[in-house]
Amino acid sequence: MRFLVDAQLPVKLCSWLTELGHEAKHTLELPLKNKTPDHQIIEIAVKEDRFVVSKDSDFVQNFMVFGDPKLLLINTGNISNEKLEKLLKLNMSAISEAGIGHRFIELTNELIVVHQ
User: What is the pLDDT of residues 45-95, one digit of tens each?
Assistant: First the structure.
């Protein structure tokens, strides 16, 4: 899978995803870095066939209205980077499997929700 990690998530998330065999870049790698507007993040994600990884409900609203971008919503509340890393690594296989046929996946502290 290919990911574009939004500004409010740690840059380390890209390293974790890469370690798990995926391609990831952070908004810090974009020309406007973390000041990249959501609409540009969406354009880049669509063009590059990436899932946006975000905690931002604005991406959910955009997905519900327009069907873009593909989205991995991190819906865990405030957790430490260590807990986020463990949660991601524990669930990445299921996330990858869900990403084959679905465009909106939500990761919570307890489960993965695949939205139709």
Answer: 999 999 999 999 999 999 999 999 999 999 999 999 999 999 999 999 999
DSSP SS3 for 44? helix
C-alpha distances in angstroms, 103 versus 31, 66, 68, 78, 98?
A: 26, 12, 8, 24, 8
Query: What is the tally of structural domains in the chain?
Result: 1
Taking residue 11's Cβ as centre, other Cβ atoms within 10 Å add up to 15
- Token pair, residue 75, equals 């819906």
CATH of the domain at 107: 3.40.50
Q: Which helix (H) or strand (E) covers residue 33, if one does?
A: none
Helix (H, G, I), strand (E, B) or coil at 32: coil
User: Contact, 60 vs 42, CB < 8 A?
Assistant: no
Instruction: Provide the β-strand partners of residue 113.
Output: 106
- Residues with Cβ < 8 Å from 115, sequence gap 6 or more? 102, 104, 105, 106
